[in-house]
């Protein structure tokens, strides 16, 4: 199949706006990836606390299962892509030199998949998840497909932001026990509503000024940083208020993780 | 009662009742209430928690900006004398927190860290509704005198009338809407403090003074000015410049 990058872009964009009923935006985007990127499966995961935390979209059940292997085994290209903040491309898992994720590799190979390609999803310069593409036949992605994958990962921030925004809204409304959402689940144990705190409001204000963004984006930015660094929103807020943490302006997309406190630089 | 204290008490009531007459701002009024209580009762900190429609308590005003104090106030969403005061709709007087560690383990631990030894929690009542609670925190064990408690309760009464329009006080839905307004005003005021704190390199309490000064000098509501700063309609530089002209800032 040969498509131009523009055609890929418009297909991907269309999938976001016209998700079929019952299908989440994230699922729709993954399904479109399979259609236009010459891969056999696609999934998206969101990563919390540096450990894998959940698949939030997939092109089908098989892809979801493949993706969840990483969470089961605690290893895989998607996790590495998020940690490194750069794509992890594995043209052939069966290659002798490929020893990075033994448990994940065996499981995926036994499902008939040879190629795995993970591209980080970056929200306001915080790496909060990855788009994972699966292919039955071995071999590298060609340049066009790779460009398309980056495009899809960029678009994936939209459903991910929705997820974060829902999370924020759910917490503000104290709607505990909300659906199967890894983000809400994580905070439901907390008791005290994390986002509804004086420190969080004050820190949001500081980010409005520091990043030159509006209040909604400042709050998302704070939230994204908390998620990617494994801290609570209050902890991040206090660090900002006490000037121990400075978040960068988002003028360099694709350079995630640059502002993590004590972060794990690869 | 000595004369200067009497003057202070009168001033506190006059301030609060002025808020009622003028186009008052609820956040500013409650901030004043907590500051007056802390000063008049000689306690270390006062915090006011309001309940939302879901019976969750939110900190709307406090006489102290210290984060650990904020923590002690906010913890009471889950446990503590203020929560009990709200739920049981009566004053909860705890002259010595050391005696209550079994009752409120988390709260007592947090209170100990900041050196609070006593808490007196008074309900903020309006007719049949309890709107929230005022927590009075002392750094020494011991009960507040009856006169002091009566004074604080009287100040709270005035404030509760100011929060909720009297005519609508029988209607719980309207009361909730007005409480919600108070709570969201608080959010935007805190955000605006953050903007000014970052832009001017200020501590939060100074940022609040700057914000308040600008609002007053322009005859505007604190939360309206805060909203414009947060929406970036009113440049923070204008507000900071005004504070410098008024010699609040160097």
The proportion of strand residues of chain B reads 5-15%
Q: In DSSP terms, counting alpha (H) and pi (I) runs of 4 or more, how many helices of chain B?
A: 10
Bulk shape of chain A: globular
Q: If you compute it from the alpha carbons, what radius of gyration of chain A comes out, rounded to the nearest whole angstrom?
A: 18 Å
Largest interface: A-B, 24 and 27 residues
Helical stretch tally of chain A: 11
Domain unit count of chain B: 2
Order of helices and strands of chain A: HHEEHHEHEEHHHHHH
Helix-strand category of chain B:
alpha+beta
What is the residue-mean pLDDT of chain B, rounded to a whole number? 87
Helix percent of chain B reads: 55-70%
Q: What is the straight-line distance between the termini of chain A?
A: 37 Å
The CATH topology of the largest domain in chain B turns out to be Beta-Lactamase
Find the CATH topology of the largest domain in chain A. Answer: Beta-Lactamase
The beta-strand count of chain B equals 5
Key descriptive features of the protein:
heterodimer; A: alpha+beta; 2 domains; five-stranded antiparallel beta sheet; 5 strands; globular; B: about 250 residues; alpha+beta; Beta-Lactamase; Arc Repressor Mutant, subunit A
């Amino acid at each position: 199949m040969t498509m131009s990058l523009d055609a890929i872009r418009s297909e991907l964009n269309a999938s976001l706006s016209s998700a079929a009923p019952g299908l989440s935006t994230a699922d729709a985007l993954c399904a479109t990836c399979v259609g236009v990127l010459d891969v056999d499966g696609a999934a998206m995961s969101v990563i919390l606390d540096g450990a894998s935390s959940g698949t939030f979209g997939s092109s089908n059940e098989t892809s979801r299962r493949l993706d969840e292997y990483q969470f089961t085994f605690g290893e895989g290209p998607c996790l590495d892509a998020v940690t490194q903040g750069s794509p992890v491309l594995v043209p052939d898992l069966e290659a002798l030199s490929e020893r990075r994720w033994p448990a994940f590799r065996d499981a995926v190979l036994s499902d008939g998949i040879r190629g795995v390609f993970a591209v980080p999803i970056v929200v306001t310069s915080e790496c909060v998840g990855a788009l994972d593409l699966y292919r039955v036949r071995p071999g590298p992605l060609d340049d066009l497909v790779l460009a398309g994958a980056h495009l899809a990962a960029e678009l994936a921030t939209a459903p991910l932001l929705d997820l974060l925004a829902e999370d924020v809204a759910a917490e503000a409304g104290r709607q505990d026990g909300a659906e199967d959402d890894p983000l809400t689940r994580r905070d439901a144990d907390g008791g005290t509503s994390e986002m509804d705190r004086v420190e969080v409001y004050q820190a949001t204000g500081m980010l409005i000024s520091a990043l030159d963004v509006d209040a909604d984006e400042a709050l998302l930015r704070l939230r994204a940083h908390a998620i990617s660094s494994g801290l609570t929103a209050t902890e991040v807020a206090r660090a900002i208020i006490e000037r121990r943490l400075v978040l960068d302006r988002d003028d360099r997309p694709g350079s995630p993780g640059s502002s993590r406190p004590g972060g794990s630089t690869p | 009662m000595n004369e200067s204290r009497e003057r202070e008490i009168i001033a506190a009531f006059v301030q609060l009742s002025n808020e009622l007459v003028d186009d008052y701002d609820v956040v500013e009024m409650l901030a004043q209430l907590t500051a007056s209580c802390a000063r008049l009762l000689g306690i270390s900190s006062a915090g006011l928690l309001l309940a939302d429609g879901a019976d969750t308590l939110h900190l709307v005003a406090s006489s102290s900006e210290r984060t650990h104090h904020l923590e002690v106030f906010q913890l009471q969403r889950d446990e503590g004398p203020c929560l009990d005061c709200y739920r049981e709709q009566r004053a909860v007087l705890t002259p010595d927190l050391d005696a209550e560690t079994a009752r409120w383990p988390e709260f007592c631990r947090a209170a100990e860290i900041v050196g609070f030894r006593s808490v007196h929690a008074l309900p903020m009542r309006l007719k049949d509704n309890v709107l929230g609670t005022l927590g009075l925190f002392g750094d020494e064990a011991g009960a507040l005198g009856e006169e002091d408690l009566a004074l604080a309760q009287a100040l709270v009464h005035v404030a509760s009338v100011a929060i909720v329009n009297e005519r609508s006080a029988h209607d719980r839905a309207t009361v909730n809407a007005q409480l919600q307004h108070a709570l969201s005003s608080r959010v935007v005021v805190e955000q605006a403090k953050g903007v000014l704190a970052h832009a001017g390199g200020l501590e939060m309490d100074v940022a609040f003074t700057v914000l308040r000064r600008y609002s007053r000098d322009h005859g505007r509501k604190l939360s309206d000015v805060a909203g414009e700063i947060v929406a970036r309609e009113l440049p923070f530089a204008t507000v900071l410049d005004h504070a410098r002209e008024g010699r609040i800032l160097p």
